[in-house]
Design brief:
Elements (H helix, E strand, L loop, with lengths): L1 E6 L5 H17 L3 E4 L6 H9 L3 E3 L10 E4 L6 H9 L3 E4 L3 H15 L3 E5 L5 H7 L6 E4 L2 H4 L10 E5 L5 H14 L13 H14 L4 E5 L5 H12 L4 E4 L15 E6 L5 H15 L2 E6 L12 H4 L6
Parallel strand pairs: 1-11, 1-12, 2-3, 2-4, 4-5, 6-7, 6-8, 9-10, 9-11
Helix pairs in contact: 4-5, 8-9
């Protein structure tokens, strides 16, 4: 068996920042830390922090007044920020700066009188947060077919934004439909889809042509991980989205298989290594790391950590 190990894979800069932020908070504050939603969409990561005493909540009513609360990498709406303030919560914002960029674009367009079409998946934490910035100005679409049902005309001020973790191809189809129907539609100068999402998709696209099987490490609720799995499936390659080696099934593989392994932007490298070890033990797999490009992006930890006494001055 040959393993083609996709690079880039795994943690992006935003995920690294959010996880480092929570690690630092635990190191200095200890117990009593809450996180609104999952810090990132990955079961392994969330389970690790849960074992350390972190409490993940879906409602601020679950957080005692005056507690420490982290906002996840996916961002939150102004409504949640305001509610946290009324409950006297000490908040730390671990939102990915690339998600914050989309929030600021939504505010800018809404203030300028635009109707905003947000391309994304209904119910995703990032989408909920972005729509919360200007709920009366934003309409969500997921597919090109939905564009035909939009109520706007070619004289309306329109702009579109995208969820950062979408498939490039998926978003492009909707954008084409929007531009065809609304030639006047505006968009940010720099696209919203995250550099890491694009890089991981391009790496898989490059390798999957040689694959018999695609294994993508990531949780089922991870949008960017699911997009990676769907790239392989769209090419007719058996593709599996799993949290770790415990979910691997030997019938997926043959001794002479070529297996592409990648990991979504919220999946830690340890789960990749465990899958590689499994395939080495059961199929004598040989690993070839295939690098599309190097990533050197780094985001600083949020300033609010200084107020917690988390970081040394």
């Amino acid at each position: 068996m040959k393993i083609l190990l996709a690079n880039p894979r795994g943690f992006c800069a935003g995920v690294n920042m959010a996880i480092e932020c929570l690690d630092e908070a635990i190191r200095r504050v200890g117990l009593g830390i809450y996180v609104y939603h999952e810090i990132v969409h990955n079961k392994y990561v969330v389970d690790r922090f849960t074992k350390q005493g972190v409490k993940f909540v879906d409602s601020l009513e679950e957080v005692p007044t005056g507690s420490i609360l982290l906002f996840s990498a996916h961002g939150v709406s102004p409504e949640i920020r305001a509610l946290a303030k009324t409950r006297n919560l000490q908040t730390v914002d671990a939102t990915c700066p690339l998600v914050t960029k989309v929030h600021l674009e939504a505010i800018r367009y809404a203030n300028a009188g635009y109707n905003i079409v947000l391309i994304g998946h209904e119910g995703h934490d990032e989408v909920i947060g972005t729509m919360g910035e200007a709920p009366e100005s934003i309409t969500l679409v997921e597919t090109p077919e939905e564009v035909a049902n939009l109520p706007f005309t070619q004289t309306d001020k329109l702009a579109f934004l995208t969820q950062t973790t979408l498939s490039v191809a998926e978003a492009s189809e909707v954008i084409v439909a929007l531009r065809n129907r609304y030639p006047q539609i505006d968009s940010p100068k720099k696209e919203d889809i995250c550099y890491a999402t694009t890089n991981r998709q391009e790496a898989v696209q490059m390798l999957v042509e040689s694959a018999d099987v695609l294994i993508c490490l990531g949780s089922q609720n991870s949008s960017n991980s699911r997009r990676l799995m769907e790239i392989g499936a769209s090419q007719g390659v058996p593709s599996y989205l799993i949290d770790g080696a415990a979910e691997l099934q030997s019938e997926w593989f043959e001794q002479d298989s070529t297996v592409v392994i990648t990991a979504g932007a919220s999946a830690p490298e340890v789960v990749v290594e465990e899958c590689i070890d499994y395939l080495k033990q059961h199929f004598n797999a040989v690993v070839s790391e295939e690098t599309l490009r190097e990533e050197n992006v780094h985001f600083n930890l949020p300033k609010e950590l200084h107020q917690l006494g988390v970081l040394k001055s």
